[in-house]
Automatic annotation (TrEMBL):
Catalytic activities: Hydrolysis of terminal, non-reducing beta-D-glucosyl residues with release of beta-D-glucose
Enzyme class, first EC level, given as a word: hydrolase
EC code: 3.2.1.21
Domain Fibronectin type III-like: 640-709
Protein name: beta-glucosidase
Amino acid sequence: MNNTQLTGLLERMTLEEKIAQMLQLVVSYFVESEEDGQITGPMESLGITEDTVNQVGSALGIGGAARVIQVQQTHLKNDRLGIPMLFMADIVHGYKTIFPIPLAIGCSWDQGLAEQSAAIAAKESAVSGLHVTFAPMVDLVRDPRWGRVMESTGEDPYLNSLFARSFVRGFQGDDLATDVNRVAACVKHFAAYGAGEGGREYNTVDLSERQLREYYLPAYKAALEEGCELVMTSFNTVHGSPATGNRALMRDVLRTEFGFDGVLISDWGAVIELIAHGVAEDEEQAAYLAVQAGVDIEMMTSCYVKHLPELVRSGKVDESLIDEAVLRILKLKNKLGLFENPLRGADPEAEREIVYCDEHRAASRELASKSCVLLKNTGVLPLQPEQQIALIGPFAQSKDILGSWSWTGAEERFMNLNEAIQGKMTSSKVLVAEGSGIDTITEQQMQEAVEVARQSDVIVLALGESSLMSGEGGSRTDIRLPEAQLQLIAKLRTLDKPMVVVLFNGRPLDLHGVEDQVDAVLEAWFPGSEGASAIIDILYGDVNPSGRLTMSFPQSVGQIPVYYNHYNTGRPKKESEPDNRYASQYLDSPNEPLYPFGYGLSYTEFKYEEMVLSAEEMTSDLPLQITTKITNKGNRAGEEVVQLYIRDITGEVVRPMKELKAYSKVLLQPGESKEVSFTVTEEQLKYHHYDLSYTSDAGEFAVFVGPNSRDAGERRFRLLK
């Protein structure tokens, strides 16, 4: 259809038909049985009629080509104007082929593989009948107590923005109308959902306008610049107003300033939650606030369909607001080609061939291997084929390695860690014991673990959180490993055997009782369908670990939030004054995280030579060239993530100690050297000033190049204006 035809279709719709387009319901409203797994959020009696269901604009959480075809064909028979439905779902890090959680994908620092993972997720979900994925989540996160840190790519606005673009490109491709192997992306959660107080889910957010713009908005904006078709509102407040009813945020910033003209959808139940927030007296007022803010689709509450018709007829809401929302929905359906092909890519036969195919599984394995981060290694890794291994822990034989938002994952078709290691080694070389549950331990489990460990050369402990301990609704105040697993570590430590810990988790952890007790720590996160094989590849050295953290690991929960791009304060702690009490510090802990942003080890050693600057001064017309030489000093090939940070020494407002501005992944053979060059422009030195103007300061800057945010060489230059 062209725009004239879409407008004509809109004019033929009754007010009730238009408003029904603005309602999204779960699949159980359209099929007799619900088999699509756990549904999150508050489920309330919606009080809607069968006529409304027949006219509804979109469905949530459906999957499977045959089912989608059935529901769409039934809907088209019942809808007076034959307007097809949109089918949406949370395909966050894979459909059937599950990739590592997004936080892990961020730790790969590989935008190409991130894009590929989204493209594969899109292909599998599109052939299964879906049109829209609720991804990427680009919320910046600094508090690992919040369970949904697993769904973000970390604590840095620049890196988050790069990955936001990669995911959108992967999901959407170049032409949604003709490429039925792609789906529309929905960036979430707008805005600043990751800044909830206390790391508590759905909690209040209170940020200054400058903080919001400097750190939290860039990744959303990057996704929109890449062409993201939908935006989802966040549950939290922004400047005292819940996002879903926040006209200034949605109309002024998102629509006018950012130029977004796509579909804005609420999160689950967020419209009716305006009442609980205390800004709406009842459902009618909630509907009024949300439509005035520009929310086009209400997810799983019925404030719109029950109250907007009367609000329009009474003159309290201008029907033009309804028309603009519905026209955006129709345009999205048209962009997806649904009016000409309402079944789009849904194809049961192709679904059987494409979903979880060998090619997709290989891509998942590669990304998993690049997402794992080696945090500690005293030389026990890589393991040697002749060694007798004791594989112990609650994740030794568990398939709970997919993480949250893997509701469609093919659990019956992938290997656990024991199966993967048995596939590589003879059974005589690997002894297995459960050791403990996630948070329970018995004397028998302990004895079996000790007996197995005594027969081994190396103990490999597979430990961590269950997938339900992170993700949505997974906030925790204690982010250590459960006590049962810490007891297991302590007991096995008495055997004086080399110990390796493989961690499965959805957040940075407080590693007290782990890092200080063992010889090696491999952070595997929730690595996805092929994660077990990828981990074995790393443990035995078939793959040299190259992952680098995109979120800092705290010394303890008492430091949180702890992040690399912090301010200096007026009384910074100085190494030259260790006994000065009156500095910004803790009496019982270092200020620094245990493992900083950008950190990760390798099985080889990289040496950095001192960086060379093309000049000591730069201008807007004369960028600065920064070059350093990296040498692989070890005996095996390895990939290094060379990171460039900048600090504005004196700004109009306080500037961070370091800010990531660029990076380069470099593969080096043993003994090989390569020069790595970066170009620093005046644009990279800009920030939001006191009056929110976005500009740079003349003066002195520090530039850092190194393997992480902590261990980097420093030089100075000046910007002339």
